[in-house]
Amino acid sequence: MAHFPHPSVLLLVLVIAVSSMNSNKIVAEARQLLEITLPEIPMPEVPEIPMPDNKIVAEARHLLETTLPEIPKPELPEIPKPELPHLPAFPQPELPKLPEAELPKLPELPPLPKFPDLPKPTLPKAIPLFHP
């Protein structure tokens, strides 16, 4: 049997081949959509709403304030607070004392050796490449 080492390439070629077969139909349909003329729909007439005068608005507000009776606030009865039963006090738990562990003493580290002072390196001066 044959073995193709890169199946992703084969998938890409397959997608390109299938998409190229239908491209002429899509272009033709798009052209037809551009050439279609839609009928014009007449806009409906919007009736104008007359604005009320300030005098009419003030009279209506005054009429509402005078004709509406005041509603008394309802009196709510007092509800007694429920009493919770007394819970007995629980004793505090005592943790057992752990014995202290004795850690062994670590030996002291020797002091670091002294390093000699090294001279600072100096770079050589640049040599000119071109001679005039």
Proportion of residues in β-strands: under 5%
Note the main sheet. Answer: none
Helix content estimate: 25-40%
Q: Number of helical segments? A: 3
Quick one: overall form? flat
Helix/strand order, N-terminal first:
HHH
Count the E strands. 0
List the helices and strands and how they pair.
Layout: H1 7-21, H2 23-35, H3 54-67
Summarize this entry quickly.
The chain has 132 residues and is mainly α. 32% of the residues lie in helices and 0% in strands.
Describe the structure.
- The chain is mainly α and 132 residues long.
- It is 32% helix and 0% strand.
- The protein contains 3 helices and no strands.
- The protein has helices spanning 7-21, 23-35, 54-67.
- The longest helix is centred in the N-terminal third of the chain and has 15 residues, at 7-21.
- It is flat and about 105 Å long.
- The chain starts with 6 loop residues before the first helix and ends in a 65-residue tail after the last helix.
- The model has no long low-confidence stretch (mean pLDDT 81).
What are the defining features of this structure?
single chain, 132 residues, mainly alpha, 32% helix
